[in-house]
Fold this sequence. Notes:
This protein is an alpha/beta fold.
Amino acid sequence: MKKKSRKKKAQGNPGISIVDVQSVIASIAAEQPEIPEEQKNFVTLEEAREDDEKFKIWRQQTFDWLRDEAAKLEALLLQYNSFDLIGNLTLTQLFINPEKDTVAGHHGLPAIVEYATLLYLKHPFNDGSLLPIGQVPLEEIDKTARAIHLTTGLYYGSDRRSTLVGEERDTLDSLRYRTMTHELSVRSPGYEHHQRETLAGLFEPSGEWMVENLGFNVTDVFAVEDAIQAITSRKILARFEEGREAISKLKSEVRAARRSKAPASDLSEMVVELSKLPPSKAAAQIKAMMIGWVMTFIGSTCLAFDANEIAAETQLPLDRVIAVLSFFAIQFGSVPSDFFLISPTHPLRVHPLVYHDGQFLYPVPGSMIWALQHRLEAELNKSTSSAAKAWRKYEKRRSDYLEAESVRLLGVALRTDEVYRNLKYSVVENGEQKTVELDGMVQFDHTLLLVESKAGALTASARRGGRERIKSNIKELLGKAHKQALRARDYIEGTDHPKFFAADGSEVPFEKNRFVRIFLIATTLEPLDTYNAALHEVVSAGLLQEEDLPWAVSLDNLRVIAEMNEFPTQFIHYLTRRLRINEFKKFYAGDELDWFGLYLSRGLYFEKDRRFDEADLVMFDGSFSADFDAYYFHKEGVRTKPTKKPVQPMPELLRRMILELDAHKEPDGHSEAIIRLLNWDDEGREQIVKGMGEIRKRARLNRGIHDFTMATTEDKAGVTLFVTVPSKSAEAMHKLRSYCLMKKYQIQADSWVGFLTIVDEQPIIQGFVVMHDPWTYDERMEVLVADLPSS
C-alpha cells in the first residue's frame, strides 16, 4: 500500500460535469439529512434564499446541526482507543494500491482523518474499550464525517444570503467558497518528490541557521518522513503476517478438534465451537476474527512510533530526530473543548504529528512535507534581530529560486537554450525615463515568452475566506505579475528596436520581427490552483485585468508539465488552447494538471461541442490527470508495473513528421507548421495521413509530383501535401509555395501550411511553407484561381 502522492479530488461523476451555478449549492443541500417531523418549522434552504430573516435562522440551524452531529461523532469516537481508531481511518481513507488504483479514483478524504483526530485532541488520550474496530463503526464515522465536511463547506460559503441567490451572486463569493473548500479538502497540491526538490532549493542554504535555531535541517525532515513510512510499513506487513500465521494455526486446531483431539491453545472453547461449524463457515469466521484483531490495534501496534525507532532507521542523532518530531507534534488536550467547526487553517495543518506518552502517530502521512515551508517561513519571520536578518536573506533567495526555476523549466519544456532572466529595459512612465526589470524571457522559434514570478504566499486569513485578504493577495501575486509582463509586451510592441540587458550589462539577442506571438507567463511558488485553473473568475472578481491574460501556473504544476511535454511545439499549442478556455468564462478544473491531462487525452476544443452551449458552469474532475499519478508511482518505485508518460493520441506517421520538424533548432517557423497540424481534430489528422499514403503510392508508380489538399471553411485553414521523387524535388518545392498561396486564397482561408515529401527519403518532411495572414480580396489572385480546381 502507498499513501496518496497527490491531492484528493471529489469523485463519483464522469470527467465532465455540466451544471448551472445554483445546482452546485443545491446538490450540497441535498446531502443534508432530512429534517425530523417534529422540526418541520425549521427554515429550508429554498426559504433562506428568499428572506434575510429566514436566512439568519437557516444559518443558525445549520450551525446547530453541525454542533450536534459533531457531538454524536465525538461520542462514537470515544468508545475506541485514540491511536487505534485514527490508525484505522488513516488506512481506510488514505492508502491505495498503486498497482491498480489511481489517486483520482480513490474516495478517501484526508479531512475525515483530520476531523476525527481534532475531536480526539479535545480530550486526554483515550484508551477506549476493547470493542473491535470493524466495518460498521468505520462506515458510520465515514458517513457522518462526510456529511459534516460537506455541510461545513456550505456553511462557510454562505455567510451572506446573496451567495445563495443566483442573480445576485458575486464572483468573489465563488472564489471565496472554492478557496475554503480547497483548503479544507486538499492536502497534497502536487507530487511529494517535486515538493522536496523545491524545499531543498529554498532551505538548504539556511541549514546552518535551522540547526542552530531549530535543531534540524531540511534533509533531516526528509529522512524522518522516509523513516516513518518505512517503519510503519514494516510493522503493518509483520502484523498481517502474524495474522496469517494465527489463521493457519487456528484452522489446524479446528481440524484437529473435529478429529476429537483436544485443543493445544488457550482458545480451546472457541476452537471447539468453531469445529462444530461447516468448514467453509468456520474458515470465514476465523478470517474475520483475525482481520478484526489485526485492524483493531493497528494504530498502537503498527502506526505508532517513537524517536528511538526513527533515530535507528535514519542514523541521525537522537536530538535531531526529537527536534523534528517536536517541531511538528501536537498533544492530546490541546484543542479547545468547545471545538466542533473545523477551520481551513486548523492546527493539524502545521502540526501533523500527534504525541502521547513517548509515542507519535501520523494521521495524514506526507503532511510534514507540505507543512514545512509555511512552518519554516513563520520561524524565519519572527520579530527577533537574528530571525529578521535570516528572513531578509531567505526572501531574496526564495524570489531568485522561483525566477530561476521558472525560466529553466520553460526552457526544458521547449528544449531551448535561449533562456534569459533578470533582464533590464528602459521605458517612459508618467513622462519619465526609467529602468525596469523583467524576471525572465524564453525565445523559441517564432514564439516569445515573457515571464514574471511572485514568490509570496496566501495569508492565513485568505485561506479562511477573508474577502479583502483574497483580493489583496491575488492582486499582489497574480495582478502585479500580469501588469509587469504586460509592460514588457507593450514595450516590445511599441518600440522599433527593443533592447534588453542582462545583469552583467550585456545586451540580450533580440529580433522583434522574428516573433509572431507573445505569451505572458505568471509563475508562483504558492499553489494557486483555485485561481489559476479558472482565471476568468479572477477577472470577473476585478482582481486581474482582462487584457491578454497570462498563463498563470504554480511551480509544482510547471514541473510536471515540463517533464510530461512530449515535444516543444506541443507546449506552445497547449498554451494557445489553454488561454482560449478563459474566453468561455464557464469552464473549471481542479488545477493546471487537469487541464494539461485533458489536453493530452481529448484536446481542449470546446467550440463545436454543443453540450456546453446552455451550461453556466462546466466542471472537469481529476480523472484526466490520473495518468500522471501512475507514471510517477512507477518512477518513484512504488509501482512495479511499467507506466509510460501519457502522450497525445495521433497517427504514428503524423507523430514522426512532428518530431522531425520539432528537432529543428533554428528559428525557421517549423513550430508554426506543427501548430497547424495539431489544430486538426482526430478525424482530420487521420485524413492527412491517409491522403499522404495515397499520393506517396502514386509518386512511386509514375515518378511525378502529386498533391493532396484538405481545408475547412469553418476554421479558415488548410493543409497541402506535395509528394515527388528526388529528381523533381526543387520543382515541387517551387510549385508548393505558389499552389498553397492560391489554395489559401480560393478557400478564403486565414491560415495554410504546405509540406514536401520525397518518396523513400528521410526525413519525411523535406520542406514546408506556412502562411498565416488574414484573407483579403485581390483582383490578381481572382484571375489566378479562376481555373484552379476547387477540390
